[in-house]
Amino acid sequence: MIPIIMLAVFVIPMGISGTAIALPLIAHDLGSDPARLQWVVNGFSVAFAVFGLVWGVASDRIGYRRTFRIGVGTLLVASATSALAPNLVVLDVARVAAGIGSAAVATGASSLLSNGFGGAERKRAFAVFGTVIGLGLALSPTISGALIAAFGWRGVFVAHAVLAVPGLAFSGLLPNPRTSGSRKVDFSLLRNNYFLALALVTVAGAFGFVTLLTYLPVAFSGIAGLPAGTAGLLMLPMTIPVLVGPVLGMRGSPRTVIAVSLAALVLGSLGMVLLAPGNWLGWLVVPMLLVGFGFGLPLGRIDAEALATVPAHSTGTASGVLNLVRIGSEAVAVGAYAATIAWLIGRALPEDLAHDTAAGHPGQAAVYADAFGWMMIGQAVVVAVVAVAISWLLSRR
Fold first, then answer.
1. Domains of the chain and CATH, by start
2. C-alpha dist (Å) from residue 154 to 26, 30, 71, 166, 174
3. Could you tell me the pTM of the whole model?
4. Residue 244 and residue 300: Cα distance in Å, rounded?
5. 88-116 and 119-151 are packed helices; what angle lies between their axes, rounded to 10 degrees?
6. How many C-beta neighbours within 10 Å does residue 257 have?
7. Residue 219's closest CA among 338, 41, 333?
8. How does pLDDT run across 301-326, given as a tens digit for each residue?
9. Spatial distance between the Cα atoms of 148 and 200, rounded to a whole number of angstroms
10. pLDDT digits (tens, 9 = 90+) for 164-218
């Protein structure tokens, strides 16, 4: 059961970080229109957020296995279409479809794990769940960079489609627990201080980690002039902690894990201002490690704790609400980051040159670095504010 689920789950984080590293080459081939280019990433995230809620309610009625299978099939077709896209409009539509499919995969997968295991086994299953997500986040920039170097940006989406094939082929072997969900979304979960605090941890991760996961390779290109393959390798100090973090996060108490992760996100974000022309890139290792552990430690633990607050027959809805907050905040964070840094760069450069610079084209390193530094300070402030809100909620549990 677990290997089948994890094969499909692995594709989801690749859809975020693996796509982002391809943006400069996509812009070169299909155009650098900022709105359409941003939707290559944001379309996936927005669709994931909205349909995470839709699939959450639907899965409690149609079954978690069926939801999972529909999701994998949709993801397969959308990834193949992305690989063949002749322009940004087709690519954007395909990425939206991939987000819809990924939402079904995530909802079905977490609900199957929550209903299929109990006690210590359930805890271990979600540790694996978090680790696989971490593995996808950790390896996808490097894998995608290598694929781009060998086959071009289209090879990234071909890989997504290929990875979805086994999950679809063997999904019929998954159990099919009975469901009896309600016909509407139950947002009363967000009145539960503990559930809301757990959900806000994902918001902190969205602003503190996912924005960098998405656009740090672009910054490496714009500031240091690095090609996609090299930028992917340089992401490893930030992404490897996401691989080991979920296992470590299962060992401490939830409050300790949350506190450590939030502090790491704030400090790591501030340290990223060291990315500037002429600075040794080695100075970024410690900040990147902090950001990686800040995001990785609560992975899996958050899902397990959150789904434990609801009855077994409503885990799909709970997963949908959690994914709405998680992916919705990621979409907002990534979209706000892209729009703000483009605005900051646009204040210093003519429009056409600003568009190319924001897309990661080298040549205006000082301008990009100045905008990036302000973004990192703002990112740290946002995470710190969210951390205060989480602390207050936990104190009122």
1. 2-170+190-395 (1.20.1250.20)
2. 9, 12, 22, 21, 31
3. 0.73
4. 12
5. 160
6. 21
7. 338
8. 888 888 777 766 667 677 777 777 87
9. 35
10. 888 888 877 776 766 555 556 556 667 788 888 999 999 999 999 989 987 898 8
